[in-house]
Amino acid sequence: MGERKRIPLGFSLLLLLVACSSFQLLRASEDADDAIFYESFDETFEGRWIASEKDDYKGVWKHDKSEGHDDYGLLVSEKAKKYAIVKELDEPVSLKDGTVVLQFETRLQNGLECGGAYLKYLRPQEAGWKPKEFDNESPYSIMFGPDKCGATNKVHFIFKHKNPKSGEYVEHHLKFPPSVPSDKLSHVYTAILKPDNELRILIDGEEKKKANFLSSEDFEPPLIPPQTIPDPDDKKPEDWDERAKIPDLNAVKPDDWDEDAPMEIEDEEAEKPEGWLDDEPEEIDDPEATKPEDWDDEEDGEWEAPKIDNPKCEAGPGCGEWKRPMKRNPAYKGKWHAPLIDNPNYKGIWKPREIPNPDYFELERPDFEPIAAIGIEIWTMQDGILFDNILIANDDKIAESYRETTWKPKFTIEKEKQKAEESESGSDGLAGFQKKVFDLLYKIADIPFLSAHKLKIYDLIEKGEKQPNLTIGILVSIVVVFFTIFIRIIFGGKKPARVERKNTEPKESSNNQSGEENEENKEEEETSAAPRRRTARRET
Protein backbone atom coordinates (compact mmCIF):
# COMPACT_ATOMS: atom_id res chain seq x y z
CA MET A 1 0.00 0.00 0.00
CA GLY A 2 1.44 3.38 -1.06
CA GLU A 3 1.87 6.28 1.31
CA ARG A 4 -1.09 8.76 1.29
CA LYS A 5 -0.03 12.18 0.06
CA ARG A 6 -0.79 15.12 2.31
CA ILE A 7 -2.43 18.19 0.75
CA PRO A 8 -0.64 21.43 1.73
CA LEU A 9 -2.60 23.63 4.17
CA GLY A 10 -2.33 26.72 1.94
CA PHE A 11 -3.76 24.83 -1.02
CA SER A 12 -6.62 23.55 1.16
CA LEU A 13 -7.47 27.08 2.28
CA LEU A 14 -7.40 28.25 -1.34
CA LEU A 15 -9.83 25.49 -2.34
CA LEU A 16 -12.10 26.46 0.58
CA LEU A 17 -12.04 30.13 -0.46
CA VAL A 18 -12.88 29.24 -4.06
CA ALA A 19 -15.70 27.00 -2.87
CA CYS A 20 -17.15 29.76 -0.66
CA SER A 21 -16.89 32.30 -3.47
CA SER A 22 -18.58 29.91 -5.87
CA PHE A 23 -21.35 29.33 -3.36
CA GLN A 24 -21.90 33.09 -2.97
CA LEU A 25 -21.97 33.54 -6.73
CA LEU A 26 -24.42 30.65 -7.01
CA ARG A 27 -26.65 32.21 -4.34
CA ALA A 28 -26.49 35.61 -6.05
CA SER A 29 -27.36 33.97 -9.35
CA GLU A 30 -30.31 32.18 -7.78
CA ASP A 31 -31.45 35.41 -6.09
CA ALA A 32 -31.22 37.31 -9.37
CA ASP A 33 -33.82 34.98 -10.80
CA ASP A 34 -36.16 35.98 -7.97
CA ALA A 35 -35.49 39.73 -8.24
CA ILE A 36 -37.78 42.00 -10.22
CA PHE A 37 -34.78 44.11 -11.19
CA TYR A 38 -31.09 43.84 -10.34
CA GLU A 39 -28.12 45.89 -11.50
CA SER A 40 -24.67 44.78 -10.36
CA PHE A 41 -22.63 47.01 -12.73
CA ASP A 42 -20.34 44.05 -13.38
CA GLU A 43 -20.64 45.07 -17.02
CA THR A 44 -20.27 48.61 -18.30
CA PHE A 45 -23.38 50.75 -17.99
CA GLU A 46 -22.97 52.29 -21.43
CA GLY A 47 -25.74 51.28 -23.81
CA ARG A 48 -27.96 50.20 -20.91
CA TRP A 49 -28.13 53.36 -18.79
CA ILE A 50 -28.83 56.68 -20.51
CA ALA A 51 -27.05 59.83 -19.33
CA SER A 52 -29.06 63.04 -19.53
CA GLU A 53 -28.13 65.36 -22.36
CA LYS A 54 -29.53 68.43 -20.60
CA ASP A 55 -27.03 71.32 -20.42
CA ASP A 56 -27.08 71.48 -16.63
CA TYR A 57 -25.82 67.92 -16.19
CA LYS A 58 -22.11 68.05 -17.03
CA GLY A 59 -20.95 65.46 -14.51
CA VAL A 60 -19.21 62.44 -16.09
CA TRP A 61 -20.27 58.96 -14.99
CA LYS A 62 -17.63 56.23 -14.96
CA HIS A 63 -17.63 52.44 -14.67
CA ASP A 64 -15.00 51.92 -11.97
CA LYS A 65 -13.94 49.65 -9.14
CA SER A 66 -14.75 50.29 -5.53
CA GLU A 67 -11.52 51.22 -3.76
CA GLY A 68 -9.81 48.08 -2.47
CA HIS A 69 -12.16 45.69 -4.30
CA ASP A 70 -12.53 44.06 -7.71
CA ASP A 71 -16.22 44.92 -7.62
CA TYR A 72 -17.41 47.55 -10.11
CA GLY A 73 -19.99 50.28 -9.64
CA LEU A 74 -21.32 53.49 -11.15
CA LEU A 75 -18.97 56.31 -10.12
CA VAL A 76 -19.46 60.05 -9.68
CA SER A 77 -16.08 61.15 -11.04
CA GLU A 78 -16.01 64.96 -10.68
CA LYS A 79 -16.59 67.50 -7.93
CA ALA A 80 -19.18 70.29 -7.92
CA LYS A 81 -21.24 68.94 -10.80
CA LYS A 82 -24.80 67.95 -11.54
CA TYR A 83 -25.36 64.34 -12.59
CA ALA A 84 -28.32 62.60 -14.18
CA ILE A 85 -28.62 59.08 -15.57
CA VAL A 86 -31.58 56.70 -15.99
CA LYS A 87 -32.30 53.01 -16.62
CA GLU A 88 -35.68 51.95 -18.01
CA LEU A 89 -37.18 48.75 -16.62
CA ASP A 90 -38.33 45.98 -18.93
CA GLU A 91 -41.81 46.28 -17.44
CA PRO A 92 -43.37 48.77 -15.01
CA VAL A 93 -43.38 47.61 -11.39
CA SER A 94 -46.62 48.00 -9.45
CA LEU A 95 -46.33 49.27 -5.88
CA LYS A 96 -49.90 48.28 -5.03
CA ASP A 97 -49.62 44.49 -5.08
CA GLY A 98 -47.94 42.91 -2.09
CA THR A 99 -44.53 43.72 -0.64
CA VAL A 100 -42.04 45.77 -2.65
CA VAL A 101 -38.39 46.14 -1.58
CA LEU A 102 -36.11 48.89 -2.89
CA GLN A 103 -32.43 48.46 -2.13
CA PHE A 104 -29.07 49.81 -3.29
CA GLU A 105 -25.50 50.35 -2.10
CA THR A 106 -23.50 53.56 -1.97
CA ARG A 107 -19.96 54.23 -0.90
CA LEU A 108 -18.88 57.80 -0.18
CA GLN A 109 -15.22 57.18 -0.87
CA ASN A 110 -14.24 60.82 -0.32
CA GLY A 111 -16.92 61.55 2.27
CA LEU A 112 -20.01 63.68 1.75
CA GLU A 113 -20.09 67.27 3.00
CA CYS A 114 -22.66 68.65 0.59
CA GLY A 115 -24.53 66.55 -1.93
CA GLY A 116 -26.99 63.76 -2.56
CA ALA A 117 -26.62 60.02 -3.17
CA TYR A 118 -30.27 59.03 -3.61
CA LEU A 119 -32.29 57.25 -6.29
CA LYS A 120 -35.50 58.29 -8.00
CA TYR A 121 -38.01 55.65 -9.03
CA LEU A 122 -39.69 57.20 -12.03
CA ARG A 123 -43.21 56.99 -13.35
CA PRO A 124 -43.88 55.82 -16.95
CA GLN A 125 -42.81 58.20 -19.71
CA GLU A 126 -46.45 58.95 -20.47
CA ALA A 127 -46.23 61.17 -17.37
CA GLY A 128 -44.11 63.57 -19.42
CA TRP A 129 -40.39 62.80 -19.51
CA LYS A 130 -37.74 61.37 -21.85
CA PRO A 131 -34.56 59.49 -20.87
CA LYS A 132 -32.20 61.88 -22.67
CA GLU A 133 -33.99 64.83 -21.09
CA PHE A 134 -34.06 63.39 -17.57
CA ASP A 135 -33.76 66.16 -14.96
CA ASN A 136 -35.04 67.26 -11.55
CA GLU A 137 -38.51 67.92 -13.00
CA SER A 138 -38.97 64.37 -14.28
CA PRO A 139 -41.97 62.85 -12.43
CA TYR A 140 -41.12 60.16 -9.91
CA SER A 141 -43.09 57.93 -7.57
CA ILE A 142 -40.45 57.51 -4.87
CA MET A 143 -37.18 59.24 -3.98
CA PHE A 144 -34.98 57.31 -1.55
CA GLY A 145 -31.43 57.63 -0.24
CA PRO A 146 -28.79 59.77 1.52
CA ASP A 147 -28.63 63.56 1.34
CA LYS A 148 -26.34 65.80 3.36
CA CYS A 149 -25.62 69.54 3.23
CA GLY A 150 -25.63 72.12 6.01
CA ALA A 151 -28.52 71.38 8.36
CA THR A 152 -29.72 68.55 6.10
CA ASN A 153 -28.42 65.13 7.11
CA LYS A 154 -30.98 62.49 6.32
CA VAL A 155 -31.86 59.37 4.38
CA HIS A 156 -34.77 60.69 2.33
CA PHE A 157 -37.94 58.79 1.69
CA ILE A 158 -40.37 60.89 -0.36
CA PHE A 159 -43.32 59.65 -2.34
CA LYS A 160 -45.53 61.55 -4.75
CA HIS A 161 -49.23 60.85 -4.62
CA LYS A 162 -52.07 62.13 -6.78
CA ASN A 163 -54.91 63.78 -4.89
CA PRO A 164 -58.05 62.19 -6.38
CA LYS A 165 -60.06 65.35 -5.72
CA SER A 166 -57.72 68.06 -6.99
CA GLY A 167 -55.77 65.93 -9.46
CA GLU A 168 -52.51 67.44 -8.19
CA TYR A 169 -49.43 65.40 -7.27
CA VAL A 170 -48.23 66.09 -3.73
CA GLU A 171 -44.82 65.26 -2.25
CA HIS A 172 -45.02 63.50 1.11
CA HIS A 173 -41.79 63.53 3.14
CA LEU A 174 -40.94 60.99 5.82
CA LYS A 175 -40.73 62.76 9.19
CA PHE A 176 -37.58 62.38 11.30
CA PRO A 177 -35.68 60.16 8.84
CA PRO A 178 -32.42 58.46 9.90
CA SER A 179 -29.04 60.17 9.48
CA VAL A 180 -26.42 59.34 6.86
CA PRO A 181 -23.49 57.22 8.14
CA SER A 182 -20.49 59.52 8.56
CA ASP A 183 -17.70 57.21 7.31
CA LYS A 184 -16.32 56.25 3.88
CA LEU A 185 -17.41 52.60 3.93
CA SER A 186 -19.91 50.78 1.74
CA HIS A 187 -23.47 50.99 3.06
CA VAL A 188 -26.69 49.41 1.84
CA TYR A 189 -30.03 51.21 2.05
CA THR A 190 -33.31 49.29 2.06
CA ALA A 191 -36.92 50.47 1.93
CA ILE A 192 -39.60 47.82 2.49
CA LEU A 193 -43.14 48.77 1.46
CA LYS A 194 -45.72 46.41 2.99
CA PRO A 195 -49.33 45.85 1.83
CA ASP A 196 -50.58 46.85 5.31
CA ASN A 197 -49.23 50.41 4.70
CA GLU A 198 -46.11 49.82 6.76
CA LEU A 199 -42.77 51.29 5.67
CA ARG A 200 -39.46 50.10 7.07
CA ILE A 201 -36.12 51.83 6.41
CA LEU A 202 -33.00 49.73 6.95
CA ILE A 203 -29.35 50.76 6.84
CA ASP A 204 -26.90 47.85 6.57
CA GLY A 205 -29.78 45.51 7.38
CA GLU A 206 -30.60 47.25 10.66
CA GLU A 207 -34.02 48.86 11.01
CA LYS A 208 -33.66 52.61 11.53
CA LYS A 209 -37.21 53.80 10.96
CA LYS A 210 -40.72 52.35 10.84
CA ALA A 211 -43.67 54.35 9.59
CA ASN A 212 -47.22 54.08 8.30
CA PHE A 213 -48.17 55.70 5.01
CA LEU A 214 -51.59 56.77 6.32
CA SER A 215 -50.32 58.25 9.60
CA SER A 216 -50.15 62.03 9.92
CA GLU A 217 -47.41 61.47 12.52
CA ASP A 218 -45.08 59.91 9.95
CA PHE A 219 -45.39 62.05 6.80
CA GLU A 220 -45.48 65.76 6.06
CA PRO A 221 -47.86 66.74 4.67
CA PRO A 222 -50.03 63.77 5.68
CA LEU A 223 -51.30 61.58 2.86
CA ILE A 224 -54.93 62.06 3.89
CA PRO A 225 -55.74 65.79 4.06
CA PRO A 226 -57.64 67.28 7.03
CA GLN A 227 -61.42 67.12 6.80
CA THR A 228 -61.77 70.84 7.47
CA ILE A 229 -59.64 73.88 6.69
CA PRO A 230 -59.76 77.54 7.78
CA ASP A 231 -62.10 79.55 5.56
CA PRO A 232 -59.79 81.76 3.44
CA ASP A 233 -62.65 84.22 2.89
CA ASP A 234 -63.50 84.66 6.56
CA LYS A 235 -62.51 88.07 7.94
CA LYS A 236 -62.01 89.23 11.51
CA PRO A 237 -64.82 91.60 12.64
CA GLU A 238 -63.70 95.19 13.14
CA ASP A 239 -64.91 95.24 16.75
CA TRP A 240 -63.13 92.01 17.70
CA ASP A 241 -60.84 92.79 20.66
CA GLU A 242 -57.88 90.41 21.09
CA ARG A 243 -56.27 92.34 23.95
CA ALA A 244 -56.36 90.26 27.11
CA LYS A 245 -55.06 93.22 29.19
CA ILE A 246 -55.62 96.95 28.79
CA PRO A 247 -54.29 100.05 30.62
CA ASP A 248 -56.31 101.07 33.66
CA LEU A 249 -57.92 104.38 32.61
CA ASN A 250 -58.64 105.29 36.21
CA ALA A 251 -55.04 105.01 37.31
CA VAL A 252 -53.19 108.25 38.16
CA LYS A 253 -49.46 108.87 38.12
CA PRO A 254 -48.13 109.31 41.71
CA ASP A 255 -47.05 112.82 42.66
CA ASP A 256 -43.50 111.73 43.48
CA TRP A 257 -42.98 110.03 40.13
CA ASP A 258 -40.20 111.96 38.33
CA GLU A 259 -40.09 110.96 34.68
CA ASP A 260 -37.17 113.30 33.99
CA ALA A 261 -34.79 111.71 36.50
CA PRO A 262 -31.79 110.25 34.60
CA MET A 263 -31.01 106.55 34.76
CA GLU A 264 -27.42 107.23 35.90
CA ILE A 265 -25.78 110.01 37.89
CA GLU A 266 -22.20 110.88 38.81
CA ASP A 267 -20.83 109.15 41.87
CA GLU A 268 -20.20 112.09 44.18
CA GLU A 269 -18.31 109.91 46.63
CA ALA A 270 -15.71 108.86 44.05
CA GLU A 271 -12.22 110.35 44.36
CA LYS A 272 -9.50 110.69 41.77
CA PRO A 273 -6.90 107.94 42.23
CA GLU A 274 -3.55 109.03 43.58
CA GLY A 275 -0.98 109.38 40.83
CA TRP A 276 -3.46 110.06 38.06
CA LEU A 277 -1.63 111.58 35.05
CA ASP A 278 -3.86 114.49 34.05
CA ASP A 279 -1.47 115.89 31.42
CA GLU A 280 -0.68 112.62 29.67
CA PRO A 281 -2.70 111.65 26.55
CA GLU A 282 -4.13 108.13 26.37
CA GLU A 283 -2.49 107.59 22.94
CA ILE A 284 0.74 108.85 21.43
CA ASP A 285 2.40 108.75 18.01
CA ASP A 286 4.27 105.51 17.34
CA PRO A 287 7.94 106.53 17.76
CA GLU A 288 9.08 103.61 15.59
CA ALA A 289 6.87 104.52 12.63
CA THR A 290 8.55 106.19 9.64
CA LYS A 291 7.07 107.89 6.63
CA PRO A 292 7.09 105.50 3.63
CA GLU A 293 9.42 106.48 0.81
CA ASP A 294 6.62 106.33 -1.76
CA TRP A 295 4.31 108.61 0.28
CA ASP A 296 3.14 111.55 -1.82
CA ASP A 297 1.83 114.45 0.31
CA GLU A 298 -0.11 115.88 -2.62
CA GLU A 299 -1.88 112.58 -3.43
CA ASP A 300 -1.96 110.92 -0.02
CA GLY A 301 -2.22 114.01 2.19
CA GLU A 302 -0.06 114.97 5.12
CA TRP A 303 1.48 111.88 6.67
CA GLU A 304 0.65 111.19 10.28
CA ALA A 305 2.26 108.58 12.45
CA PRO A 306 -0.12 105.86 13.65
CA LYS A 307 -1.20 105.99 17.28
CA ILE A 308 -0.27 103.51 20.02
CA ASP A 309 -1.33 103.24 23.67
CA ASN A 310 0.65 105.53 25.94
CA PRO A 311 2.96 103.25 27.99
CA LYS A 312 2.91 105.75 30.89
CA CYS A 313 -0.83 105.20 31.23
CA GLU A 314 -0.35 101.47 31.53
CA ALA A 315 2.12 101.97 34.37
CA GLY A 316 -0.05 104.44 36.25
CA PRO A 317 -3.69 104.44 37.42
CA GLY A 318 -4.84 106.41 34.35
CA CYS A 319 -4.32 109.35 31.99
CA GLY A 320 -6.12 112.41 30.70
CA GLU A 321 -8.94 114.37 32.28
CA TRP A 322 -10.34 112.48 35.27
CA LYS A 323 -14.11 112.25 35.47
CA ARG A 324 -16.24 110.82 38.21
CA PRO A 325 -17.71 107.41 37.28
CA MET A 326 -21.45 107.04 36.79
CA LYS A 327 -23.70 105.02 39.08
CA ARG A 328 -27.37 104.00 38.95
CA ASN A 329 -29.74 106.78 40.04
CA PRO A 330 -31.84 105.54 42.99
CA ALA A 331 -34.54 108.08 42.08
CA TYR A 332 -34.86 106.82 38.52
CA LYS A 333 -38.30 105.39 37.65
CA GLY A 334 -38.57 106.03 33.93
CA LYS A 335 -41.68 106.96 32.04
CA TRP A 336 -44.89 106.22 33.95
CA HIS A 337 -47.42 103.84 32.43
CA ALA A 338 -50.84 102.96 33.72
CA PRO A 339 -51.02 99.41 35.13
CA LEU A 340 -52.74 96.75 33.05
CA ILE A 341 -56.09 95.26 34.03
CA ASP A 342 -58.30 92.51 32.53
CA ASN A 343 -60.03 93.66 29.37
CA PRO A 344 -63.82 93.32 29.84
CA ASN A 345 -64.27 93.24 26.02
CA TYR A 346 -61.66 90.53 25.43
CA LYS A 347 -62.94 87.88 23.01
CA GLY A 348 -59.84 85.75 22.63
CA ILE A 349 -57.50 85.30 19.67
CA TRP A 350 -59.55 85.36 16.48
CA LYS A 351 -59.26 82.58 13.98
CA PRO A 352 -61.26 81.93 10.82
CA ARG A 353 -64.09 79.44 10.92
CA GLU A 354 -63.51 75.91 9.66
CA ILE A 355 -65.11 74.78 6.40
CA PRO A 356 -65.12 71.37 4.68
CA ASN A 357 -61.87 70.71 2.82
CA PRO A 358 -62.69 70.38 -0.89
CA ASP A 359 -59.52 68.28 -1.38
CA TYR A 360 -60.33 65.82 1.41
CA PHE A 361 -60.44 62.13 0.54
CA GLU A 362 -60.22 58.76 2.25
CA LEU A 363 -58.41 55.61 1.16
CA GLU A 364 -57.25 52.32 2.60
CA ARG A 365 -53.94 52.18 0.73
CA PRO A 366 -51.81 54.72 -1.12
CA ASP A 367 -52.59 54.83 -4.82
CA PHE A 368 -48.95 54.61 -5.89
CA GLU A 369 -47.98 55.23 -9.49
CA PRO A 370 -45.99 52.33 -11.02
CA ILE A 371 -42.19 52.44 -11.35
CA ALA A 372 -41.03 52.38 -14.97
CA ALA A 373 -37.39 53.47 -14.57
CA ILE A 374 -34.65 54.09 -12.01
CA GLY A 375 -32.80 57.39 -12.14
CA ILE A 376 -29.97 59.10 -10.30
CA GLU A 377 -30.29 62.88 -10.43
CA ILE A 378 -28.00 64.63 -7.96
CA TRP A 379 -25.89 67.70 -7.35
CA THR A 380 -22.80 67.13 -5.25
CA MET A 381 -19.64 68.92 -4.15
CA GLN A 382 -17.81 65.58 -3.66
CA ASP A 383 -16.53 63.03 -6.15
CA GLY A 384 -15.96 59.35 -5.44
CA ILE A 385 -19.62 58.46 -4.78
CA LEU A 386 -20.12 54.88 -5.98
CA PHE A 387 -23.52 53.28 -6.63
CA ASP A 388 -23.84 49.49 -6.79
CA ASN A 389 -26.20 46.51 -6.54
CA ILE A 390 -29.50 48.25 -7.23
CA LEU A 391 -32.35 45.88 -6.46
CA ILE A 392 -36.13 45.76 -6.69
CA ALA A 393 -37.72 42.64 -5.18
CA ASN A 394 -41.06 41.46 -3.82
CA ASP A 395 -39.64 39.74 -0.73
CA ASP A 396 -37.42 41.20 1.99
CA LYS A 397 -35.72 37.78 2.30
CA ILE A 398 -34.36 38.26 -1.23
CA ALA A 399 -32.98 41.67 -0.26
CA GLU A 400 -31.41 40.16 2.86
CA SER A 401 -29.74 37.48 0.75
CA TYR A 402 -28.26 40.14 -1.55
CA ARG A 403 -26.90 42.04 1.44
CA GLU A 404 -25.21 38.92 2.72
CA THR A 405 -23.63 37.99 -0.64
CA THR A 406 -22.80 41.36 -2.21
CA TRP A 407 -22.49 44.02 0.48
CA LYS A 408 -21.39 42.29 3.69
CA PRO A 409 -18.12 40.78 2.37
CA LYS A 410 -17.00 44.20 1.12
CA PHE A 411 -18.06 45.97 4.30
CA THR A 412 -16.22 43.42 6.45
CA ILE A 413 -12.99 43.94 4.50
CA GLU A 414 -13.32 47.73 4.66
CA LYS A 415 -14.04 47.63 8.38
CA GLU A 416 -11.00 45.46 9.10
CA LYS A 417 -8.81 47.72 6.96
CA GLN A 418 -10.11 50.77 8.82
CA LYS A 419 -9.29 49.15 12.17
CA ALA A 420 -5.81 48.21 10.96
CA GLU A 421 -5.09 51.76 9.78
CA GLU A 422 -6.29 53.20 13.07
CA SER A 423 -4.16 50.70 14.96
CA GLU A 424 -1.06 51.56 12.91
CA SER A 425 -1.53 55.24 13.59
CA GLY A 426 -1.51 54.50 17.29
CA SER A 427 -4.96 55.96 17.85
CA ASP A 428 -7.12 52.84 17.56
CA GLY A 429 -8.79 53.22 20.92
CA LEU A 430 -9.27 56.98 20.72
CA ALA A 431 -10.45 56.94 17.08
CA GLY A 432 -12.88 54.12 17.82
CA PHE A 433 -14.20 56.02 20.82
CA GLN A 434 -14.54 59.21 18.75
CA LYS A 435 -16.39 57.35 15.99
CA LYS A 436 -18.88 55.92 18.49
CA VAL A 437 -19.31 59.34 20.10
CA PHE A 438 -20.07 61.07 16.79
CA ASP A 439 -22.44 58.30 15.68
CA LEU A 440 -24.29 58.64 19.00
CA LEU A 441 -24.45 62.41 18.68
CA TYR A 442 -25.96 62.15 15.18
CA LYS A 443 -28.61 59.82 16.58
CA ILE A 444 -29.33 62.23 19.44
CA ALA A 445 -29.68 65.10 16.95
CA ASP A 446 -32.42 63.08 15.22
CA ILE A 447 -34.63 63.14 18.35
CA PRO A 448 -37.86 64.91 17.23
CA PHE A 449 -38.04 67.51 20.01
CA LEU A 450 -34.50 68.70 19.10
CA SER A 451 -35.40 69.32 15.44
CA ALA A 452 -35.42 73.10 15.91
CA HIS A 453 -31.80 72.98 17.13
CA LYS A 454 -30.39 70.55 14.54
CA LEU A 455 -28.33 73.19 12.75
CA LYS A 456 -26.40 74.17 15.88
CA ILE A 457 -25.83 70.54 16.91
CA TYR A 458 -24.72 69.45 13.42
CA ASP A 459 -22.31 72.38 13.26
CA LEU A 460 -20.64 71.28 16.51
CA ILE A 461 -20.50 67.62 15.43
CA GLU A 462 -18.94 68.47 12.06
CA LYS A 463 -16.29 70.64 13.76
CA GLY A 464 -15.48 67.71 16.00
CA GLU A 465 -15.17 65.31 13.06
CA LYS A 466 -12.76 67.66 11.29
CA GLN A 467 -10.70 68.17 14.48
CA PRO A 468 -10.88 64.86 16.43
CA ASN A 469 -8.47 66.16 19.07
CA LEU A 470 -11.26 68.48 20.23
CA THR A 471 -13.67 65.63 20.99
CA ILE A 472 -13.89 66.38 24.71
CA GLY A 473 -14.45 70.10 24.08
CA ILE A 474 -17.12 69.32 21.51
CA LEU A 475 -18.83 66.96 23.96
CA VAL A 476 -18.87 69.66 26.61
CA SER A 477 -20.31 72.17 24.11
CA ILE A 478 -23.08 69.81 23.04
CA VAL A 479 -23.91 68.96 26.66
CA VAL A 480 -24.26 72.72 27.29
CA VAL A 481 -26.57 73.00 24.25
CA PHE A 482 -28.72 70.08 25.45
CA PHE A 483 -28.84 71.48 28.99
CA THR A 484 -29.88 74.92 27.68
CA ILE A 485 -32.65 73.36 25.58
CA PHE A 486 -33.80 71.30 28.57
CA ILE A 487 -33.95 74.39 30.80
CA ARG A 488 -35.94 76.27 28.18
CA ILE A 489 -38.39 73.40 27.85
CA ILE A 490 -38.88 73.15 31.62
CA PHE A 491 -38.82 76.84 32.54
CA GLY A 492 -39.40 78.59 29.24
CA GLY A 493 -42.99 79.50 30.03
CA LYS A 494 -45.91 79.53 27.69
CA LYS A 495 -45.79 81.20 24.32
CA PRO A 496 -48.63 83.53 23.35
CA ALA A 497 -51.26 81.89 21.20
CA ARG A 498 -51.35 82.83 17.57
CA VAL A 499 -53.38 81.98 14.50
CA GLU A 500 -51.77 80.02 11.70
CA ARG A 501 -53.35 79.20 8.41
CA LYS A 502 -52.61 75.73 7.17
CA ASN A 503 -51.18 75.43 3.68
CA THR A 504 -52.35 72.27 2.00
CA GLU A 505 -49.96 72.66 -0.90
CA PRO A 506 -46.56 70.98 -0.26
CA LYS A 507 -43.31 72.85 -0.36
CA GLU A 508 -40.28 70.94 -1.59
CA SER A 509 -37.83 73.28 0.04
CA SER A 510 -37.75 76.56 1.89
CA ASN A 511 -34.82 78.73 2.87
CA ASN A 512 -35.46 81.30 5.56
CA GLN A 513 -32.70 83.82 5.14
CA SER A 514 -34.38 86.80 6.77
CA GLY A 515 -32.48 86.30 10.02
CA GLU A 516 -29.11 86.29 8.27
CA GLU A 517 -30.05 89.28 6.15
CA ASN A 518 -31.11 91.24 9.24
CA GLU A 519 -27.80 90.46 10.92
CA GLU A 520 -25.88 91.55 7.82
CA ASN A 521 -27.89 94.77 7.60
CA LYS A 522 -27.26 95.44 11.25
CA GLU A 523 -23.53 94.96 10.82
CA GLU A 524 -23.51 97.25 7.78
CA GLU A 525 -25.37 99.95 9.72
CA GLU A 526 -22.96 99.68 12.63
CA THR A 527 -19.98 99.83 10.28
CA SER A 528 -21.30 102.88 8.47
CA ALA A 529 -22.14 104.65 11.74
CA ALA A 530 -18.73 104.10 13.33
CA PRO A 531 -16.22 106.98 12.82
CA ARG A 532 -13.26 106.06 10.69
CA ARG A 533 -9.80 106.59 12.04
CA ARG A 534 -7.10 107.41 9.56
CA THR A 535 -4.05 105.18 9.71
CA ALA A 536 -0.76 105.73 8.02
CA ARG A 537 0.64 103.33 5.48
CA ARG A 538 3.52 101.30 6.76
CA GLU A 539 6.46 100.37 4.67
CA THR A 540 6.73 96.66 4.00
Automatic annotation (TrEMBL):
<protein>
    <submittedName>
        <fullName>Uncharacterized protein</fullName>
    </submittedName>
</protein>
